[in-house]
Here is the input.
Amino acid sequence: MLISRWMFFNWRRCVTERVVIVLSCLLLPACSGFMTNEYAAELASPLDSNAAGTGLVILSAGSLESCHPLLKAHTEVVIYPSDGSFFRNSVAALEVDSTYLDSEFESHHGHLYILKLPAGKYYLVPRLAVGFGGYPSPPRADFEVYANETTYLGEFYMDNECLQFAKFLLRDQEARDLTMLRSRNPAFRTIRITKRLLVFVGCDRFTISVSVR
Here is the structure.
C-alpha cells in the first residue's frame, strides 16, 4: 500500500493511554452493527459544497482491528473549531475502532466520512469514547474548510491492536476513498475534489471539551 504522506505518533511522544474496561455488551457478536454512520457517502449531497459559507470535507478513519468495549474503550476522532476557546464544543465525533459500527473496508476496520461544515479553521484530535479515561495529550492536526469547495483530508489510522498503546498515522488513501465515494454516491462523479492532506502539528493542550453530536 502506497502511503505518500504520513506522520507517526506513539505513546512515548504524545499519548499516555489509560486503559478502561467498559461492561457494555456481554456478547461480542451481538454488538456488531449496533450503530450507523451518520456521515456515510450515500447520505452526502454535493449541493452542500455550494451552500453559502459552507464546504464539504472527506475523511476516512480506520484501525488495524475493531475493539470491543469489554477489552478496551474505543477511539473517536473529534473535530473542533480553532477558535482558541478554553471551553470548546466539538462539531463532529467520528468512530475509529468501535465494534459497534460495521467496517466499510475489506483490508482493515474503518469508515468513510463526508461532513458539511461552515467555512473556517478546525483541528482534530483522537479521544477515548468514554468518560473514565483518555489521551491526556493527543496529537493534533489542523485543517481549513473553504466555502464552495469539497476537500479530501486523508485517513486517520490506528496501527495497533486493541490492548496495545495507541499508534496514530495520517495516510493518503485518495484513490480508495474517492472510488468508494463515487461508487456509493454517483452525484460526486462530476464534482471537483481538492486534496489537502492532514499533518500532525503537535500535541493538543488541555482544555475542557463538550461533545456536540
The CA atoms of residues 67 and 103 lie 12 Å apart. The two ends are 33 Å apart (CA to CA).
